[in-house]
Every structure is written in structure tokens, then in C-alpha cells.
Input
Amino acid sequence: VPADPGICSLPALVTAHFSQNHLTGTVPSCLDAISNLEFLRMSDNMLTGPLPDGVITSQSLWQVELDRNQLSGQLPLASFRRPEGVSLYVDFSWNLFSGAIADNFSANCFWEAIIIGENDLTGSLPDTLSLGGTRLATLDMSNNYFMGSLPPSFAQFSMISNLLLNGNFIS
Output
């Protein structure tokens, strides 16, 4: 991974784009130490391990793209918190994340996009997703192992333009 923890000693860093660099190892855990970091893209690498707390707890990151890696473990969407009025765009697709999505995950953020397709996620679709979804434009939960029916709360997505739930067991 690029100079971990060296990357975290760049206090003025706003954008970090390391896609398609054949990076190995884990995502740096110190990313929350970069107080100005707003945009992180490390797509199309060979990164492994769980999503580090630094990505989750950073108050400045509003766009995180870690798709097409080999990240694994639980996807802790319930732990994301951002200041009021700040939208969050996440792309964790094409990884190895597994397990269920916590039902309370959306109440802590205003989500713009949640892209978590092509993982090994299971369980039902979270009914509380709409709590942070008034700005949600893209929801991609495709090609996982979600089951059950579409929660009635999904009708509250007034801004959604991309809803991808294919490749699951949704009735």
C-alpha cells in the first residue's frame, strides 16, 4: 500500500487516487488522521483484509471507492457517521465482504450512493435504509445473497435513479 503510514503524514491531502496500481496488503488504517481527505479511490488492486476503522471514522471523507479488490469480513455500514448535511458515496463492489447488513445502518449518514454489489452479503434488505436515503441516487446491492421482500420503506426514495437488486433472492 502506498507509503503506509507515509500517506497519513500528508495533512493537506484532499484526493488520493491509487487505482490500478497492483497494490497489495491492507487499506491504511490511519486515513482518519488526514483531516482534509475527501476522496479516496483504491479500486482495481489486490488489497485484502477488513475495512479499516480509519475509513469508517473519518469525518472528511465523502467519496470512498474500494471496489474490485479482495477486501473481506463484515461490511460495517452501521458505523459510518458524517456531519449533518454531508452526503456519502461508497463503492465496495466486487470484493469478498460477507454477512448481513445491520438494520440500523442508514440512520447515521445521508447516503448519496451505496454500491455493494458482487460480494457475498446475506440476510434481508434493511428496512431502515430510507432513514438516510432521501438523497440516495444509487443503490446497488446486486449479485449477493439477499432474501425476502422489498421493504415498504423503499417507497421513500424520491431521488433514486439507479436501483440494482438483481441476482439475489428478492420476492
